[in-house]
Design brief:
Blueprint: H1 3-19, H2 37-40, E1 52-53, E2 58-59, H3 60-70, H4 72-87, E3 90-99, E4 117-125, H5 128-137, E5 154-156, E6 166-170, E7 174-181, E8 184-191, H6 195-206
Antiparallel strand pairs: 1-3, 2-3, 3-4, 4-8, 5-6, 6-7, 7-8
Helix pairs in contact: 3-4
Length: 210
């Protein structure tokens, strides 16, 4: 082939390469990470004045370790319940307790007949189906009632304001909400406080479950 022929072939090859269309590179979208349970549970700004965070409020291992030093029997029961949630897929969990008197910090979920207290628990799962199974089986002994077996003070489903997979229960001195939102299960227990305080607490936690 002559030098001109070689040059012409090269020009044709370059033109063909320039005319080829190539798909634009699109970087893979990084999924938005879910909030940590420690950020989703009740925070100091969510509770009324006069309530102080109990020692140990935070990740479950910290909470249980602190509780073990003051109430080993209660810590043992809650540990067993937490291990049960881990077995069905919980990847992280947190507990926060706020009370007007430190004696409530040693009570189960801060519930007493006289002291104002608020407790919250949030666990995160790998997916919604795992979280749903956990909610159905019960969170620390609180499970949704069978259909048609509602009792006075108990509200199930969307009427709670917390979605289809939710229930609330009210007694004279205690109000409780348990629900599943996205990949989380949540529990809020309020003792000796007004209804508006209870609703504000559940709304604050629910808004962070994304």
């Amino acid at each position: 082939m002559t030098r001109f022929g070689t040059w012409l072939a090269l020009v044709v090859l370059l033109t063909a390469c320039q005319n080829e269309t190539h798909p634009a590179f699109s970087p893979a979208l990084t999924p938005t990470p879910h909030a940590a349970p420690t950020a989703a549970v009740l925070q100091s700004g969510d509770v009324p004045a006069g309530l102080t965070a109990c020692a140990g409020s935070g990740p479950m291992d910290v909470y249980l370790s602190v509780l073990e030093s003051s109430e080993p029997a209660l810590a043992g029961r809650i540990t067993d319940q937490w291990l049960g949630l881990l077995k069905i897929g919980a990847s992280a969990g947190a507990m926060s307790v706020f009370a007007a008197d430190s004696s409530a910090c040693k009570a189960e979920l801060g519930t007493t007949t006289t002291t104002k207290a608020m407790a919250s628990f949030v666990a995160r799962f790998a997916d919604e189906s795992q979280a749903d199974r956990a909610w159905e089986s019960g969170i620390f002994g609180f499970a949704p009632p069978p259909p048609g077996q509602l009792t006075p003070g108990l509200t199930l489903g969307t009427s709670t304001g917390l979605g289809v997979r939710s229930f609330t229960y009210e007694r004279p001195s205690v109000r409780l909400a348990c629900w599943r939102h996205s990949v989380y299960v949540a529990l809020v227990v309020v003792s000796n406080l007004e209804l508006n305080t209870f609703k504000a607490a559940t709304a604050a936690v629910d808004a962070r479950l994304d």
